[in-house]
Amino acid sequence: MRAVLTALTDELKRLKATGVRTVSVSEANLAALRGVVQRRAAGAGASRKIAAMPDPLPSPPPVISTKEAVRPLPAASSLPPPPVVALAAGDKRTRWTALRERVLGDAVCRAHVRPGKQVVFGVGDIEAKIFFCGEAPGAEEEQQGEPFVGPAGQLLNKMIQGMGLRREDVYIGNIMNWRPEMPTAFGNRPPNAEEMAYCLPFLRAQIEVVDPALIVALGATAARGLLGTDTFKSLGEIRGHWKQFAGKPVMVTYHPSYLLHNDTRRAKRAVWEDLLQVMERAGLPISEKQRGYYL
Ligand code: URA
Predict the structure, then answer these.
(1) Distance 174 CA to ligand 1 centre (A)
(2) Least confident piece of the model among 70-79, 151-160, 190-199, 225-234
(3) Is 142 a pocket residue for ligand 1 (Cβ < 6 Å)?
(4) Residues 122/202, Cβ–Cβ less than 8 Å
(5) Which part of the chain has CATH 3.40.470.10?
(6) Chain-centre distance of CA 28, in angstroms?
(7) CA 178 to chain centre
(8) For 65-69, 94-98, 132-136, 194-198, which range has the lowest pLDDT when averaged over its residues?
């Protein structure tokens, strides 16, 4: 237990030194951490009289910032050069299935997956007009082998429903195909530039096969992965604007997990206005009621 807490504290110090001021901790992880601390305190026994130990991770105050923080990239991790991905011959389904097998069997991806967890490939309609692109799998995603199945995924599903679609009507992928490693079992970190560069050919190939009308980049990491790591300083600069990747229009918006931490009408409306632009460009019908969401 001591090792877990030490590793966690070291990682928090490292993040702080790189300028990170807030970290996201899910309720489940917070509860698990409290359990570790309580068990450790109980294990210290009654023989030592210690003052009541302050909770090292008090409930985080709500983050009130209206800007999605652009977290600094962690140090590079020495991966082989990005793979060259050749698409199989055949129809769309055949090419997609072969690509999926290629990625799930990729030795580098597999080497970065924790024991018992999975490489994560995109899901959805391979005929979709809209391709949602997120950052990287989290704990639930690496467990189930599917993007966006945790809390952020539940919110993404609601956003898709708000657009009059079902999750199965769109395609959902990530910049990364594995969950970036952490020194602890808790939390997530954004991928570094080398990790993103390694996985990008897999994303590019999915875009080529699915051939969507447009891409929605969810959050700063997705935008950096698609548009380049130094193309913007704050997501607010490019959010709500059309960009380009692989010849496709890209709408950049906030990540659903940003909305989970900034549950304000203003933030929801900002994302919704981006999605209205997406609906217009994809030729989806928009009712007056939909136009007025979160006003
Ligand atoms: N966040 C992401 O960016 N992708 C996922 O698959 C899950 C959470």
Answers:
(1) 7
(2) 70-79
(3) no
(4) no
(5) 92-291
(6) 18
(7) 11
(8) 65-69
Q: Is 92-291 in CATH node 3.40.470.10?
A: yes
pLDDT tens, residue by residue, 46-89: 333 323 323 333 333 333 344 566 655 555 568 999 999 999 99
174 lines ligand 1 (CB under 6 A): yes
Nearest-Å Rg of the Cα atoms of the chain is 20
Q: Where are the beta strands (DSSP E) in the chain?
A: 123-124, 130-134, 171-174, 214-218, 242-245, 248-253
Q: In 3D, which of 232, 207, 216 has the Cα closest to residue 274?
A: 216
CA 166 to chain CA centroid, Å, is: 20
C-alpha pair distances (Å), 28 with each of 23, 108, 186: 15, 30, 10
Quick: pLDDT tens for 260-278. 999 999 999 999 999 999 9
**3-state DSSP call for residue 43?**
helix
Residue of 257, 259, 260, 261 best suited for mutating to test ligand 1, as the one with most atoms within 8 Å of CB: 257
Greatest CA span in the chain, whole angstroms? 72
User: Quick check: CB of 122 below 6 Å from ligand 1?
Assistant: no
- The tokens describing 98, both together, are 């072969």
The candidate with the shortest Cα–Cα distance to 156, out of 217, 100, 212, 238, is 217
Determine the angle formed by the axes of helices 219-227 and 193-210, rounding to 10 degrees: 80
